[in-house]
């Protein structure tokens, strides 16, 4: 052992900066005692009963003051725990400080993850937790932390997988590795289709200037967003059109370059345009794209009179209003399905590194 068996350590696994979530990890002999002093039932002051590996919703109390509602997951018979908080830096600091006052030793995330007692799969999941920035991803990783190590042990040395099992596991693994590597989505389309309004809607705040004037977006803008709870990087690009403005022309060229490395392209069109004009704009965008990445057609401004005329052009298109939010949930579900994120169920063990796949006899192409 690298540390005393009696020692209990606490670490903030996520970055010490504002975000959607924060994860505080606890390991050691005093883990259960420290949790009893910190966590209460969400309703009432009674002690929380934990089931090993099962996330439990709790209320965290420090100095008799409710601080946050959090998801707590206990492992290893009560010797380890992970506390998933809302992403306020101050809240995370208060929880770490309270656990430190209770007797835990505060260590950095690197030292906590590098513990030589930890299963390599646990270390890999903890490293992913340290980088994740949405609540859904952190919750999924916590579930994998509880079920994946035993799944890998049960199937190692590698057994025989039938074709359906092999395909299902590899599809989930590819999706998991994609989201942990970082998903890139490019938003393209003609001017005034509402690309920037949609990007702001998905980002969750007014990050990009919007205007009815063509050419307002003069450069591609990149920002983190959440799609169906999964983290992505969204790139809004300049509207595609013929122009004599050298600055706008360069902005369009640079925006198209950004599509090359995208995992998915959202093609945003103005559904209120005349059908023949809409088809011409659609074909021009498709011809200009410099990627073979999957594409999702988005018919925006479906709340504008006359938009129903475009419905027959592409029956597979997502019909939305970026302005008032109509159809956004369905669009996010469609994006998640194209990227395979809908395969990442919390109860389905999913190898999330090539090493984990090799351990059970599966190879990613």
Describe the secondary structure blueprint for this structure.
Elements: E1 8-12, E2 21-28, H1 31-38, E3 39-41, E4 56-62, E5 65-75, E6 80-86, H2 89-101, E7 105-106, H3 109-113, H4 120-131, H5 135-154, H6 163-181, E8 183-188, H7 195-203, E9 221-227, E10 230-236, H8 246-258, E11 264-270, H9 275-288, E12 295-300, E13 318-319, H10 328-338, H11 354-359
Helix pairs in contact: 4-5
What does this protein structure show overall?
This protein has about 375 residues and is of the alpha/beta class. Residues about 1-5 and about 210-220 have low confidence and may be disordered. It starts with 7 loop residues before the first strand and ends in a 6-residue tail after the last helix. The strands form two sheets. It has a seven-stranded mixed sheet, with helices on both faces. It is built from eleven helices and 13 strands. Helix 4 runs antiparallel to helix 5 (about 135-155). It has two domains: about 10-155, 2-Layer Sandwich (Gyrase A, domain 2); about 180-340, Rossmann fold.
């Amino acid at each position: 052992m690298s540390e005393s068996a009696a020692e209990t350590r606490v670490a903030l696994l996520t970055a010490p900066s504002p975000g959607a979530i924060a994860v505080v990890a606890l390991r050691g002999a005093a883990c259960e005692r420290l949790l009893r002093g910190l966590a209460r039932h969400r309703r009432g002051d009674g002690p929380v009963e934990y089931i090993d590996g099962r996330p439990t919703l709790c209320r965290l109390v420090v100095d008799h003051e409710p601080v946050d509602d959090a998801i707590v997951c206990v492992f290893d018979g009560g010797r380890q725990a992970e506390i998933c908080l809302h992403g306020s830096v101050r809240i995370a600091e208060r929880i770490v400080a309270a656990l430190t006052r209770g007797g835990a030793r505060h260590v950095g995330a690197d030292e906590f993850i590098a513990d030589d007692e930890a299963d390599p799969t646990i270390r890999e999941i903890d490293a992913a937790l340290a980088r994740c920035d949405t609540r859904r991803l952190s919750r999924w990783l916590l579930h994998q932390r509880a079920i994946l190590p035993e799944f890998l042990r049960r199937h190692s040395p590698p057994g025989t997988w039938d074709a359906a099992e092999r395909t299902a596991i590899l599809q989930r693994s590819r999706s998991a590795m994609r989201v942990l590597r970082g998903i890139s989505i490019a938003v393209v389309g003609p001017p005034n289709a509402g690309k920037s309004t949609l990007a702001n809607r998905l980002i969750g705040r007014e990050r990009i200037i919007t205007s009815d004037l063509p050419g307002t977006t003069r450069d591609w803008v990149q920002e983190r967003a959440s799609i169906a709870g999964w983290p992505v990087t969204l790139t809004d690009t300049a509207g595609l059109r013929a122009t004599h403005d050298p600055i706008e022309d360069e902005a369009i060229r640079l925006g198209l370059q950004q599509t090359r490395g995208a995992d998915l392209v959202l093609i945003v069109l103005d559904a209120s345009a005349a059908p023949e004009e809409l088809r011409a704009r659609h074909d021009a965008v498709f011809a200009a794209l410099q990627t073979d990445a999957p594409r999702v057609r988005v018919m925006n401004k479906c709340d504008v009179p006359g938009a129903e005329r475009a419905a027959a052009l592409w029956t597979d298109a997502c019909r939305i209003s970026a302005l008032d939010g109509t159809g956004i949930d369905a669009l996010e579900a469609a994006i998640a399905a194209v990227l395979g994120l809908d395969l990442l169920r919390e109860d389905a063990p999913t190898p999330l590194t090539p090493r984990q796949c090799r351990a059970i006899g599966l190879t990613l192409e």
